[in-house]
Amino acid sequence: MANRRVFSGIQPTADSFHLGNYLGALKQWVDLQETRETIYCVVDMHAITVQYDPEVLRRRTRVAAAQLLGAGLDPQRCILFVQSQVPEHAELNWVLGCLTGFGEASRMTQFKDKSAKGGADQASVGLFTYPILQAADILLYKADEVPVGEDQRQHLELSRNLAQRFNHRFGQTFVIPEPYILASVAKITDLQDPASKMSKSASSPQGIIDLLDEPGVIRRKINRAVTDAEGSIRADEAAKPGVTNLLRIYSALSGKPVAEIEAAYAGEGYGKFKKDLGDIVVDHFAPIRERTHQLLEDTDTVDAILLEGARRASAIARQTMTEVRDRCGFPPAA
pTM here? Predict the structure, then answer.
């Protein structure tokens, strides 16, 4: 499997990634370096589909990269770069946009969800075509596999459809990407609202554990996490969503099966369980936070890693676009 190529990207839309990002994506990214050819991208072009501050975006892009490196991405074993540093992403986005039906793009759930807040008339064209740029990101690198959550499955299906459509019309060019979904990666929900996914855009600050949170803040958030009046520590999605979410987090970070954790806390109250979970999260995130802060004190190193990653990514992207231009009937690039 070592020769299979994986591509994935993450937006720099906050000052810190959160626990849901880490367990759902970043931890997988680190693990995949061992068995795949891995290409990872901070997708800053996706971040400008809504109103933004350029200086905040610049800072958050660097902070995002530092966290990825702090979490264990190794530039010797993966390509890590910033999307806007490789202009072929935008070029392929236009080509694929011209192959995408308006109705097809209209059915993308993310546009419906995000535009519903401010109204479709106020949403940008970029937000509407966001999934097409996402397809360009993936197809540009001829990725075999794309790590995705269930909520991104529809967008990956668009990437597959566009790859097949281009290949059918213009000749074999793109790899048809497959989803890489780990069944064991459970959805992490809001600590204060266990019915909702942990999310920067939807959760309250107390409902999210950030990778860069201080230890005391992490422990307080876990201590205040919603549970129930029953007092027993067992997984039951319907009756005990809050406790079930905490058990998932405990299991994912400790490597212990949920059943083993339930047995260990039989007869114990929530107090000891939450205290121990707080220690596990703090111990897991402490080295990531420390490495991230060290990198942010040496931004020249971070910038150099990203530039080298962009150079390596560009070599692949240019080769793909040379093929695409030829098949589309464009003259060679200058």
Answer: 0.92
